[in-house]
Each structure stands twice: as structure tokens, then as C-alpha cells.
Predict the structure.
Amino acid sequence: MPATPAWPPQSTPRLFVDQPLAEGAIRIDGPAAHYLISVMRTKVGDPVKLFDDRTGEWLGIAGSVGKRDLTLDVTERLREREAVPDLWLCAAPLKKGRVDWLAEKACELGVARLVPVVTRRTVVDKPNTDRLRAHMIEAAEQCGRTALPEVAEPVKLPALLRDWPPERALFFADENGGVPALDAMRAHQGPAAILIGPEGGFDTEEREAIRAHEQAVGIGLGPRILRADTAAAAAVSLWMAAAGDWR
């Protein structure tokens, strides 16, 4: 006998909803409705996966479909909200496009919090945090995540160091060399953060201030020179391999 098709199908669209989900009807409008109606061609009876970054992933069934909005009947919870490793990514803002890529990868790799850090060589002082969050939402919708990283407001490096929580290790990518990243991360258990500087790197005074911080550990990311966004993705991947949820 033929196998019973999976339900909901793997092709079911996923949508982030910024409100707590529960069984019952929910109205979708705006860009999300346009995506479901005009792009995905959602019809009455079609399934839609929903997640809210609070309660997990839910199954919705299209109950009515209009020109600009639709109603979904939320019928059951498919998954609980996933556990998120306690890792922050503190990164100097980059130019548009590259910082968007960094935000997407931070979400895909499982970072809990993205903190834009303004340094003396930072090109962009005021990144658009709403846009960064939008890129994270899109990444989470496509990758099946049920949790979103928090996006913090930009902070200047001296203030970041001054207010740093004492229980959280601070691994900073030191272009002048440091402990091999994987070794340093394996030696630490508990909350952590990765600090990535701008394309021009930290200046001498900034580097000395970071090194003097009690929680800071300078790490090296291998023999090759990496661009800032690549360094961030590489460092996060190493931490996940050493102490995160890649086991």
C-alpha cells in the first residue's frame, strides 16, 4: 500500500506571527497576507505553519481567503519553542548587505542575542535594527526555527565593557593572535559572547581595553585573514561545535 503522505507537507509555508498563538482563529493581513495569497496561492483548506517566538510552532488551516487578508484556524501545536544556547554575538555594524547577511547567519546558527557594537573604526554608527530583525525573521521562516535572536540597541565599546555581566565569558577575535578559538571555547562552560571588530579591526587603545577586561579571552581564527562577517560566522560555528547544540 502507498505510504500516507506527511501532514502537513514539507512544502507548507511558514510564517512568523508577533503575538502569542493558541487554538482558535487568527487574521493575517499586510505583507504576510500578500505572501500567502499572491505568492504561495493559499486556498481555503491549505495548511500554514505558524511560530511566535514564545510558544513554539502551530498548524493553521486557511478558513477564509480574501484579496488582502485571510483567516487561519489554528488547530494544534506542532512543536515547542526550541532551546537556545546562551551565546551573544557582539559585532561592529557593517555596510548594508553584509550586515544583513550577518544577521541572517546569526539566526540560522542559533545565536541568542545580536549586539551591534560601535567602535572607532565602525563604518555604520546607527544600524537599522528593525531591518536586521526582519532579515532574522525571514531566515527563521525558511530554516524551520521556532526562536528568534534578540536584537539589542547599538552600544559603544567602552559602555559594553563597563556594563559587561561578570558571569559571561567574552571571546574576542584578536587579529594580533590569541588562543586557538576551539581550545578556548572548549575550556569554558557557561554563558558566553563573541566580539567581532570592524573591517579595520580594533585600534590599539580599544584592543588594550578589551584585553584588560577580566572576562575577555583573545582568540585566533586560523592562519587566514577573514572579513568581519566571515569571522563572525566562523567563531559562532566553532562555539556551537565546542559548547552549543551541535553535539
